[in-house]
């Protein structure tokens, strides 16, 4: 079944909700990136040092090197911003989703929701294994299998242009 046929088989409600989910995630990523860019004092250092769980040693080692922290800061600020723009505009949507998931997986591994762990950085609730980060990863995975950039977005025009 072709993408065009699959897209045509979505109901208006399905189409609206899938595109709305992509736009909401896009705004969330874009705003997180812009806030970090706008704050000259923002650094990932504290987050890296607060890491716990199986991968804490990796994140602590990252925090121990100033050049690695600087790279992590830059990648976070601009990664979040570009992922957000890609999702909002429907531009290179699959790449934005992939890199967004990769970033979220790193956040999840750094701060896993385990019963035995207490973080210095305040959490939004009490979680065990499932938290908002994991839900965001799965929401992005869902969007990976539905071509929302082909429905509404620049990707739709790129596909039409490249087929001509």
Explain this structure.
This protein is mostly helical. It has one domain. It is built from 9 helices and no strands. It has helices at 3-8, 12-38, 45-49, 56-63, 66-89, 93-110, 132-144, 148-151, 154-163. Helix 2 runs antiparallel to helix 5 and helix 6 (93-110) packs antiparallel against helix 7 (132-144). The chain is globular, with a radius of gyration of 18 Å. It starts with a helix and ends with a helix. The model has no long low-confidence stretch (mean pLDDT 91).
Topology diagram in text:
Blueprint: H1 3-8, H2 12-38, H3 45-49, H4 56-63, H5 66-89, H6 93-110, H7 132-144, H8 148-151, H9 154-163
Taking the alpha carbons of the first and last residues, their distance comes to: 21 Å
Oligomeric organization of the protein chains? single chain
Q: How many structural domains in the coordinates?
A: 1
> How much helical structure, as a percent, in the residues?
over 70%
What is the radius of gyration computed over CA atoms, rounded to a whole number of angstroms? 18 Å
Which of globular, elongated, flat, extended, rod-shaped describes the shape?
Answer: globular
In round numbers, the mean pLDDT is 91
**Based on helices, strands and strand pairing, what is the structural class?**
mainly alpha
Number of helices: 9
Instruction: Spell out the helices and strands N to C.
Output: HHHHHHHHH
Task: Write down how many β-strands occur, each being a DSSP E stretch of 2 or more residues.
Answer: 0
Strand content: under 5%
Low-confidence stretches: none
Largest sheet: none
């Amino acid at each position: 079944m072709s993408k065009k046929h699959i897209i045509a088989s979505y109901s208006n409600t399905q189409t609206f909700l899938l595109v709305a989910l992509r736009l909401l995630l896009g705004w969330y990523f874009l705003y997180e990136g812009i806030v970090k860019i706008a704050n000259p004092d923002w650094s990932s250092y504290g987050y890296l040092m607060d890491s716990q769980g199986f991968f804490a040693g990796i994140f602590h080692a990252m925090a121990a090197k100033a050049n690695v922290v600087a790279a992590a800061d830059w990648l976070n600020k601009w990664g979040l911003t570009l992922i957000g723009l890609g999702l909002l505009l429907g531009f290179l949507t699959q790449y934005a989703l992939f890199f967004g998931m990769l970033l979220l997986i790193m956040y999840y591994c750094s701060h896993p929701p385990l019963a035995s762990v207490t973080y210095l950085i305040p959490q939004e609730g009490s979680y065990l294994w499932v938290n908002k980060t994991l839900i965001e990863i799965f929401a992005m995975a869902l969007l990976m299998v539905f071509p929302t950039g082909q429905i509404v977005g620049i990707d739709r025009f790129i596909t039409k242009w490249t087929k001509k």
